[in-house]
Request: fold
Amino acid sequence: MATGVEPITAEEIRARILEALPDAQVEVRDFTGGGDHYEAVVVSASFAGKSRVARHRLVYGALQDAMAQRIHALALKTLTPEEVRAEAETAGLGKTHTL
Amino acid sequence: MTDDILAQIDEQVKKHPILIYMKGTPSFPMCGFSAATIQVFDSLGVPYETVDVLENPAIREGIKRYSNWPTIPQVYINGEFIGGCDIIREMHAKGELEPLVRAALNR
Reply:
């Protein structure tokens, strides 16, 4: 981990993801409040037909240099709008998320 | 030199049906994401191999280039990159991981 590098903010992570995926709904949470453990839920139609690995690569790609130097930990969840609806419908059976 | 590392990694992932690159060891994981990944495989009760990237900085950097994936842990099944902690947990929650793992071990 590089030292002397500005820690990234949740808002900056969100902005970068939106730059790469303009249609996306993005929610970023700072787990610890310390700016080093984030969780992002990204919902985008552009994920349709893509594997989980391909979806995560799209998001990581948006964060590029930050991913290497300024983000210590980022948990990712990538969904299409259809998957969000399907999850909402089965909400009684599984866990829901906040989007 | 760097190509040697990629060749070494390629050999490792093809040699083991299930190989996990992690920080620390299954008994002493040094990162929450690595710990969570190990927990999933332990809950399946299947054998797996691990590589501690903290013990080998060249592999720690090399594995990221090998898979074009910026984070650790990384899980490989039958030589194929399957994902990191989030993907493994999601696949496990949806019941997709166990069939993949069993098929790999039965080969």
In short: Strands of chain A lie at 25-30, 37-43, 73-79. DSSP finds three helices and three strands in chain A. The mean pLDDT of chain A is 87.
